[in-house]
Each structure stands twice: as structure tokens, then as C-alpha cells.
Amino acid sequence: MGSAVTSMKNRASGSGTVQESVQDLDEMWSIVDSWTPKALPSSSCSHLKGWKTVRVFVSSTFGDFHSEREVLIKQVFPELREWCEARNLCLVECDLRWGIPQDTPSSKILATCLGELDRCKQDTYENPLMVILLGERAGWIPDISEVPSEVVEQYHWIPGMSITGMEILHGAYRNSNPNAAFCFRDPSFLGQLPLQELTQYQETGQKALLMQSLKQHVCHRFTAKQILKYKCKVQGKDCTSGSEKVRLGFSCEFTSWILQFLKTRIIETFPGHTEAFSETEKPSWEQTEETQHQLFLQQRCQLFLGRDLEVQRILEFLQVEFKDSTQQINCVVTEAEGGVKLPCTPVLQIISEPGMGKSSLLAACLMRAVEIPNMSVFYHFTGCCPSSAQLSNLAMRVCCHVLPAGPEREDVMQRLRDCSRNEDLKEVMRQILKSSPVSPNKTLCLFIDAVNQLSNPRDVSDLLSWLTTDGFLPPSCRCVFSSTITNAHSPFSLQLELLSPQSSQELAVKFLSRYSKLLCLMHCSPEGGIERDLCGALSELEGGPDIPPLHWVALRRTLGCLLRLGQDHRGRDTLSFFHGSVVKAIELSLLQTEASRQPYLSSMSSYYEHRCSDDMTVVSQLPRLLQEAKLGERLIHFLRKDPRALCIPAQMRAQYMKVLRCSQVCRDGFPRSPALLCSFCSLKTRAFGQLFLNKQSCVVCGATVMINEREAFLCPQHFRHGVSECLVCKTPILGPNKPSPGLLCNFCGFSQTCITIKL
């Protein structure tokens, strides 16, 4: 086989032509059939409860399938996405060769397309969901010299094969993928095309033989239920993309067959998502939280290298018997300051500066710990999701791990929710750990990462104190936690080595600068951004068309060492920074002033306001961004005029408005004038953002005011002396009809200041 490959390489390089590289098609297919692909590691995401991501990879030659791709984007995928969401599945279509500029390097296209196909394979147990469109064109056949050596080796590149053919081989043919849909276009429509258009849809010579051979091998390997042979007809010209292209029309069979095939294969691949979920079947709070921590754990483990000695020491610590003294583990870790003999509290603290790898070390250790017999492992990664930074969240997750599901656990969970003081929380946690059903010969191990990242500084000090207090942890429990803070009460600690010298920081700054736009946009989303939203905001910032998917994927791959790929509670792909030190580096090097942050906040705001199609995401992100960007007029317009803002809670609306209100005091005894509504405006709605009558609405936040209302007032700076005018229409209030007083809800009326909104 080696000599055959060498022979084909020789024909596909140097002065040889493409036709020469495919002279012996039988030889080519014998090489294809002789190679067994290596299995990729399955993504842990496929095994997690709750939402899952479904990726569909679209493969075809580019120039002659724009009509089919248009149908997929506008008809097939929207309906499939709605169907998936009803089953807790998040659809992501991967169509990377849309909009590729002509100057894109060949090596970048090859590595990115096949790498993204690998990502699809990992999510679906090596059988990616694919829609493969084949006509009469072979498409781009790169010269063997254009293919990077690592791509040749990793994907067993076949000289003389097109990029579309390699996608088919890698994603479908070599592993007889049952999730691949092949759509063969009937060539009869070619007779309707003028001669000058034929070259865009039809090959001649050896390339035509290659396409014929590819289709024959597909039909031989795959069953008829995976192959659709469809017809189309010419319907004129399409100029919507800026260049004139032939527009093709299809029967409804094309869309219905692809939809049905994908739905069937999705059900087969994700059997737990067969039926649409009712509200009672949605993932529980516990499952949603566990998913976030599992994703974080998997990513940290993938990036862990070295530190074998530290792993060994921590695992030894977990298995040591704490009975009489600390001497028996002095060889394992360092005793607390001065070697003083402290009570045998089984707690180990891992200490280092930010970015040293504490989280990855903990992840690697706990993955080893779960394999130790008679050991129950709980882990909590502070910062892996917004809720993880709350001490109460940690306590509730410990409760769910220790106590079996049932009335007792529900009772304890309610007690935790009702705790208003940390001391109450401590007592409930102590009782949970003490009453743990773990048998005497079984050890409960608690791994808590980044204690210092808890949202409240008081929570940090309290948790550190609890963990190192005698009696808080039962004898059968071990705890390993990481922090940037040295806790003097911790009996055992492990200090990680320092980071590399300052020169590495300068290198990092240069690296960050190359990708400053995306990194700065991500900085505007402190809790992580949805991938498609970040991509859209980047297009908004650059003022051009949508970024080609290939470029976006390549950008994400390049920045992979700085980013954490995750999924939100709805299974959508998210990007966030891998560590707080990355955030700090971006602030110091790229966003030193408020002015430097302004264009990124503005671009993110414009994307969510005008282009984002998910209303829930718009409501959660847009007001915050407009407020941070100091775009008060747009914020008020959104809160009061945009129908999407109707679902924002009144108290949250009031918080946004409070920042924009005039600060002049309007209490009794201060100069002021009542805010009034004319008889006409008082009986209308939506002046202040809600659907209630204006006279029954808070004139600031729009909440309904039925009881305990307070009158609204204007300061001397904002009312016309001697003239009463309507707060809404600004016309003077004249005539016999009595005006209605402007009212404030309890929250907005508490400050007793002028109700004018300063823009």
C-alpha cells in the first residue's frame, strides 16, 4: 500500500496535473478501503443530563449548491431547531465554506473544515450528523503540496481527492456512518442552462470520472434509505448575494426527506430525547448545575500536563488515616506555619498565584480519586457558571450529593434556601455532613476549587474558617480546596511553583493584541457569551457582512488556550475566559480606559437590539450593555417601547431607571411640582413601558400601582414655573377635566427624588 500512495503522490505533485493524479481510480479506492480510522475520544457532553448539542455538518461543493444551502438555512434548519428545542436539544449547523474569501490559505481551509468535522464526531459517538450534497462537480482538488503534512498524516489524505470527497471519507465513508444523508442532484436540469453556465455545474474528463466513481462507491456502501435522488429546475437568476447566480427550484420532497432523516437519526443518537419534554420533565436544578461542573471538569482535564508529584501527594493525603498526630503525613505535604502540631483536621489547601494551574490539578486529582475503592467524590468549581460563586449554591450541591433524593433532602434544601446568615448556613452544612449516610469504611472527599472567587468576601473568610474548624468535617471526610489566599488555620498546604518570568507576560500581551476585537467583546460578557452572539457582534463591530463560519471556527481554535468552551442551560455553545488572569491581562493591555471599552459595548448592544433573534437573550443582555455603555436614550426606548422588554421584572426595570433619574430631592418642604397626566394620556397605556393604564402605572418603571402609591414630583430644574403640563404629551393642562397625579411604586418612591430621566 505504501508504494501505491507514493506513486499517487508523485502524480499529484511537481509537474503532474490533477488528471494524472486520478488516472487509476481503482488504485485510489483500494487505498481508501485499506485504512481504518482511529477513534476520537467521545465528548463527555453526550453523556450529560439535560440539554445536549446537536451538530449537523453540511458538505458540498460550494459554487453550484447555493440554492440548496439557501433552502437548508431558511426552511430545514429553522423547523429542525424548533423540533430540537422542544426535546432539550440545541441545534448547531456547521456550514463552513459559506462566504470564504478567495485569498484564504488552503492549509487553513483544510485543517479547519476537517477539525470541525472531528468536533461533530465527538458529540455523536463517532457518527456525525451530515447532509452531503453531490452534483456533477468534483470541486476543489488541492495539490498534495498544499496539504499540510499533519493533515496528510492525521486524516490519511488521498492524493487527487477533492476536499468534499475527503469530508465524505472522513465523516461518513470510512466508518459507514448511519447518520450521513446523501442527496444526489439529478443532472437533467443542465439542459435548461446556457452553455456559459454549464462549467459551474458540470465536470469533464477525469474529474467527471472521479464524481461518477465517488457516487458509485457511496451507493455500494450505504443503504437506499440514506440516499435521496432529487430533481430541480431552473427558476431564473438570483442576485441577492451581490453576484448573479442561477436560482434552482425544488419539490417539497427535498426538504421533507432531509428533515425526516435528521429527526430519525437524532432520536437514534439521543434516545433520551425522543419525545418533547413537558415542563415537569425539564432538567432539575441539580442536573443543570451538575452539567456545568462536568463540562468544566472535562475541559480542565484535557489541558492538564505534568505535576505528577503533586498529584501523587494529594492522592496520598486522601488515603491517610487521621488518628493520633500529623507526623505520618509530613512527608506528603507541608505542615502549617512553623511545623506546629495542629489538631488533625483532614483539610489540604492548594495555594498559588492566579493562572498556575490549580483548577487543572484538582480536576486531574479528582478524576483519579473516583477510581479509588470506597471513596465518594464531590467537586465544586467556583466560577464555572454564575451560580457557582454563591456560598449557598455550594451548600445545596453538597446536600444533593450527600443525601439521597426524598423528603429529607427536600426539607434540608428548603432550610438552606431560608438561611439569611452564614452562621445558619454553617450549622445546616455541619448537620448534612455529620448525618451523611456514607458507611464507616467509605471516605467522602470534597474538592472545592477557587474558594477566593466566591462572590462575597465574607463568604470566602467564613468558608475557610469552617473547613479548618474542628468538628465541622466528620472523621470520614477529606477536603482539598484551592485558593490564592493563604489560610493560616489550614493544617496542610501545597504550594505550586511560580509562573514563568516577565518575558512570558510580554509574549502574552502580543498574542492578545492580535485578537483584540473578539477578546474585548468577550470581556463585555463577564459570564460568558453565546458563540453565535459573539460572532454576530464581531460582524457588527467590523461594519461588514456576517463573518464566514470557517474564519470564526479558525479564530476560536487559535484562541483555544485562552478560552473555555461550554454550553448554557439551553445547550447553546458558549465562550468564556479560561481563567481570571486572562481577564486581567486584557484589562491591562487592551481596555485600560472606559473610552477604549465603549465601541465594544456599543457593538454588542447593536447586535442584541437589531439582529439577535432570541428574545430571552436580548432581555437578559441588552439593558445591562446599554447601561454600561451609557446609552441612556436607547435604554429608555428599549424598556418603554420594545415589546421584548415587557417580561422584565418591575424591580429590575426600576434599578436601570434609578441610575438615570435626576438626583434632586423632592421631599416635603423642598421646592417641587407634582407630575401630572392630562385626562387623555391618563387613559392610554404603554407610556412607561407596561400594559397598564398610565394613571395606574409607576411613572418611572411602569409597574402597576394599586396600593401604597406615592405621588411623583419634579424639581425646579425640570418643571415650567406657572404652567402645569402633561408628563407624557408635554402639552399644558387646561380646561375643566381634572388631571391625574403621576404615581410611583414603593421601590421608585423610596428615594423621594425628581422623576425626570436624564438623557
Automatic annotation (TrEMBL):
GO terms for cellular component: Cul4-RING E3 ubiquitin ligase complex. Keywords: Repeat. SUPFAM superfamilies: P-loop containing nucleoside triphosphate hydrolases (SSF52540). InterPro entries: DCAF12, DUF4062, nSTAND1, P-loop_NTPase. Pfam families: DUF4062, nSTAND1. Residues 55-143 form the DUF4062 domain. The keyword Repeat applies. The keyword Zinc does not apply. Residues 296-455 form the Novel STAND NTPase domain. Residues 1-21 are annotated as: Disordered. This is Telomerase protein component 1 isoform X2. It comes from Xenopus laevis (African clawed frog).
